[in-house]
Amino acid sequence: MSGKVQRISLSLPADVAEALDFVMEARGAQNRSQVVASILREELIGLRRSNPDEVMAGTITLFYEEGQSGLPGRLAALQRVHVKEVVSSLSVLLEKSMRMDVLVVQGPMQVLDTLVLALTTLKGVRTGKLTLTNAVLPPLYGRPETLQGE
Questions:
Q1: Rounded to 5 degrees, what are φ and ψ at 28?
Q2: Which residues contact 106 (CB under 8 A, 6 or more apart)?
Q3: I want to staple 94 with a disulfide (CB 3.0 to 4.6 A). Which of 43, 98, 103, 109 is the partner?
Q4: What pLDDT score was predicted for residue 146?
Q5: What distance lies between CA 75 and its chain's CA centroid?
Q6: What was the pLDDT predicted at 150?
Q7: CA pair distance 60, 56, nearest whole angstrom
């Protein structure tokens, strides 16, 4: 993203302008421009997300019961199947037997959607959510094919 700012004029119906002011206050934004830019970015991410071949990055956040029989192994197995898409993960113990996992992911939307559905439908997973950004990770190093099996 460049640091340049382009000034535009925007006319809104009064009720929409009032709603924009409400959102600005609720988000703690300094001005309407910040809110409008944020809303437009979210919309652009949504449009990109609708393309199954679009490569995007983000996080999958899962909340689950760690005591659920076999669940940690099934979660790990899904991450291994999607090792190209799961860049990193963080696991945090919560109170009682709850755990939160945050997976940093990148890949084509159709693959990410398949992964999040597979993860969130496992027995014992309470909730899960995919959050995306309009930026992607830089290319990661790969090994020459001759070294991969050694």
A1: 70, 25
A2: 55, 56, 57, 58, 85, 87, 136, 137
A3: 98
A4: 65
A5: 18
A6: 56
A7: 12
From residue 63, alpha-carbon distances to 24, 89, 130 in Å are 30, 13, 12
Of 100, 105, 77, 75, which Cα lies nearest the Cα of 90? 100
Mean pLDDT by groups of 10 residues along the chain of 150 residues: 82 94 94 92 87 94 93 96 96 94 96 97 96 85 64
The conformation of residue 134, written as its DSSP 8-state character, comes to S
Q: Tell me, what's the pLDDT at 143?
A: 65
The long-range contacts involving 91-96, CB below 8 angstroms and separated by at least 24 positions, are 93/66, 94/63
pLDDT value at residue 135 = 86
The one-character DSSP state at 99 is E
Give the C-alpha separation, 35 to 28, whole Å.
9
Phi-psi region of 144 (alpha: psi -120 to 50; beta: other; left: phi over 0): beta
How many helices (H) and strands (E) the chain has is answered by 5, 4
Q: Does pTM surpass 0.70?
A: yes
